């Protein structure tokens, strides 16, 4: 006889276990999907540089590389072009001010100077002739006045005698009036001559001043023309070392072309290149430290050139306490330029990441040290060791500070071989 079997119902704990298992599966699936949506790069931790964020005194310095150069250099340029005929001093020699260095030849220049000399001499002769003519006119006018004054005196004496004779009717009235009229005429002539003399003198003074100015200019032009011959003999303008004289006999040099350079070797300076990142933070008066011959020395920034070339700008520094005795032109120095006073800050060791991110974000390791997650940060000053962190990182956190390269486009780095 068949017996009906009753189906056993599941207990409550079985249903609870099944729900927990389903929830776990769902959570794991969501986690897997979430992880799959995050761009992840797997990297060997031993191939990366991982640094710890610290709190410390930030020394606001930057390394710069400088070259020792003469404090003053004078360039030699061709005032007038020509062909190099003689080289009188060897390159590298020490020269005195005014010492001849090389001789240029220029036949065209000599011909122009000769023509200019002739024309200038003719102009000078013409001006001198004009001045002589005006002087002659002045003398003639004075002679006319002398004659007029003499004639008036003679007529006045004659008229004085004739008045007595006329009173006694010893001469005719016609003779008396003739002398009177002659005297009046001579006085008018004298007045006219004096007026003419005043006008001629005023014109003569003005014209002579103009002639003197023109003569002076012509003489200066003549001297300048003659001095061009001297310009063909190139002389040292200052005493120093002739560090450059790239000329050969027979070589043609044009007007204004560089002939050489003289360095004043009594004092030197340091010319350094600084990264354009610091262009707004470098100013005259800042100090730089360096070591020379095992001795710690310092220098001061005296000039900043704001022009940026290939990512750097130039500064001039002067040795503190005078130029050291063991320096040589062209010698290079490694310096640390101080940009500000030390301040306690959150510091991140400097690494290749700064070039890849500009210091705007980094990969920060999580608590399990298995992943490094991309995080935005705010940075400030930097030196050759640290970057100052203003926001985004805390002391004790670990950051990948090596170059990011292919990792720059991902959001997370999975680390292996820790």
Please explain how this structure is put together:
This protein has about 425 residues and is α+β, with helices and mostly antiparallel strands. It folds into 4 domains: about 40-60 and about 345-415, conserved putative lor/sdh protein from methanococcus maripaludis s2 fold (Beta Barrel); about 60-70 and about 265-340, Elongation Factor Tu (Ef-tu), domain 3 (Beta Barrel), CATH 2.40.30.170; about 75-105 and about 230-255, Beta Barrel (OB fold (Dihydrolipoamide Acetyltransferase, E2P)), CATH 2.40.50; about 110-230. Helices cover about 35% and strands about 35% of the residues. The chain is built from 4 helices and 22 strands. It has helices spanning about 10-35, 105-165, 175-230, 355, and strands at about 40-45, 50, 55-60, 60-75, 80-85, 95, 100-105, 235, 240-245, 250-255, 260-275, 285-290, 295-310, 310-320, 330-340, 345-350, 360-365, 370-375, 380, 385-390, 400, 410-415. The strands form 4 sheets. Strands 1-22-18-17-21-2 form a 6-stranded mixed sheet, with no helix packed on it. The chain has a 6-stranded antiparallel barrel with strand order 4-11-14-13-12-15. It has a 4-stranded antiparallel sheet with strand order 3-16-20-19, with no helix packed on it. Strand 13 (about 295-310) and strand 14 (about 310-320) form a beta hairpin. Helix 2 (about 105-165) packs antiparallel against helix 3 (about 175-230). The mean pLDDT is about 85.
């Amino acid at each position: 006889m068949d017996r009906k079997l009753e189906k056993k119902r599941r207990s409550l704990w079985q249903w609870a276990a099944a729900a927990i298992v389903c929830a776990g599966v769902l959570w794991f699936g969501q986690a897997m999907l979430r992880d799959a949506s995050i761009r992840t790069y797997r990297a060997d931790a031993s191939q990366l540089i991982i640094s710890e964020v610290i709190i410390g005194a930030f020394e606001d310095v930057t390394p710069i590389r400088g070259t020792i150069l003469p404090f003053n250099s004078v360039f030699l340029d061709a005032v007038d072009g020509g062909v190099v005929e003689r080289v009188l001093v060897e390159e590298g020699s020490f020269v005195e001010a005014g010492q001849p260095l090389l001789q240029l030849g220029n036949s065209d220049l000599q011909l122009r100077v000769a023509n200019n000399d002739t024309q200038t001499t003719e102009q000078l002769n013409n001006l001198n002739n004009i001045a002589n003519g005006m002087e002659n006119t002045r003398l003639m006018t004075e002679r006319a006045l002398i004659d007029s004054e003499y004639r008036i005196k003679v007529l006045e004496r004659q008229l004085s005698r004739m008045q007595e004779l006329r009173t006694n009717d010893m001469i005719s009235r016609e003779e008396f009036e003739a002398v009177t009229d002659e005297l009046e005429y001579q006085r008018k002539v004298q007045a006219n001559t004096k007026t003419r003399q005043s006008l001629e003198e005023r014109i003569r003074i003005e014209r002579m001043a103009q002639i003197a100015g023109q003569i002076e200019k012509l003489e200066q032009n003549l001297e300048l023309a003659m001095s061009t011959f001297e310009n063909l003999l190139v002389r040292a303008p200052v005493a120093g070392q002739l560090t450059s004289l790239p000329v050969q006999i027979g070589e043609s040099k044009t007007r204004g072309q560089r002939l050489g350079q003289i360095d004043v070797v009594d004092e030197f300076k340091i010319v350094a290149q600084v990264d354009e990142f610091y262009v707004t933070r470098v100013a005259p008066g800042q100090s730089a430290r360096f070591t020379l011959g095992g001795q710690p020395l310092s220098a001061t920034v005296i000039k900043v050139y704001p022009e940026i070339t290939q990512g750097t700008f130039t500064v001039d520094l002067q040795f503190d306490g005078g130029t050291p005795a063991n320096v040589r032109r062209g010698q290079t120095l490694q310096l640390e330029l101080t940009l500000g006073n030390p301040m306690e800050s959150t510091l991140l060791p400097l690494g290749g990441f700064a070039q890849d991110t500009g210091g705007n974000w980094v990969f920060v390791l999580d608590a399990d040290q298995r992943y490094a997650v991309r995080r935005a940060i705010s940075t400030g000053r930097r030196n050759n060791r640290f970057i100052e962190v203003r926001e985004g990182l805390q002391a004790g956190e670990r950051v990948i500070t090596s170059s990011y390269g292919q990792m720059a486009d991902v959001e997370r780095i999975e680390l292996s071989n820790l």
